[in-house]
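Many introductory courses stop at the sequence. We go one step further.
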Amino acid sequence: MSESHHHHSPVDFGSGRLAMVLGISTTLLVVEVVGAIVSGSLALLADAGHMLADVGGLALALVAARLARRPATTTLTWGFRRAEVLAAAAQAAVLLAVGLWVLSEAVRRLIDPVAVAGTAMVVFGAAALAGNAVSALLLKHSASNSMNTRAALLEVTNDALGGLAVLIAAIVIATTGWHRADPIASILIGAMILPRAWSLLHKAINVLLEATPEGIDLTEVRSHLLSVDHVIEVHDLHANLVATGLPVLSAHLTVEDGCFHDGHLPELLDEVQACLVGHFDVHHSTFQFEPAGHAAHEEACMEDIPDPGGHRRDPLTAP
């Protein structure tokens, strides 16, 4: 079995600007929770839940970056790279619960309006909007150089939109006394929370189930591998994501018998690994080279195995 050891380095989420934005977002989260208690505003509390998504995401990224630097061991062969996935799943579950509660409470308040202190809501809403504007300015300068920073800027922009909805509702309440503006703003913010939470949970579950990573089509991978000279057949093809930025792939390649006698296998290994890196950005791959008659020696299973190429093969009869 041959293996590539060219790992991606851990993604660097720990820049100073992101750390500063995390501090601002955490402060705003506390401010909005206090503001919700003081004013009685559900919209402020909903926006705090929205802010929780970004605080959790930024904190997760920074912690995961530190954990990812810890060396692998014989018991944790990938180190703590998957810690971010477990934390993301927990975060998504909390966000789903918060989003559903906000929508439920908002509907209840639409039916039976609750008095809200509009002036206090304006003050806290304006503070949240101003804080998000500062975060956006901090990130805007370096967003063009970093995908992670661009993602963080998008999240901060979404938070600013939520803060704007709170501020508009607060002004409506303060000037007209129409308290249903608060649950309406809450519904809008809740509608922003739920899709994000579901998307995060879906991605985390896919990683834990070792689903094929997004952007990797195994049928296309098979086609590219078969196009390499001397490769006859590809089977037991698997791909999964260990953590963010770390896709791994393994496959059994049936190659011409002569490759085992003329010293061509090292060159062939370089070719198939270069194929994966160049076409699919997969830097960690494991290949088992086999002669044409080797399939008869592999251990048989008792059920059909789905073939990523779109066929099914029976391991008891497959060549």
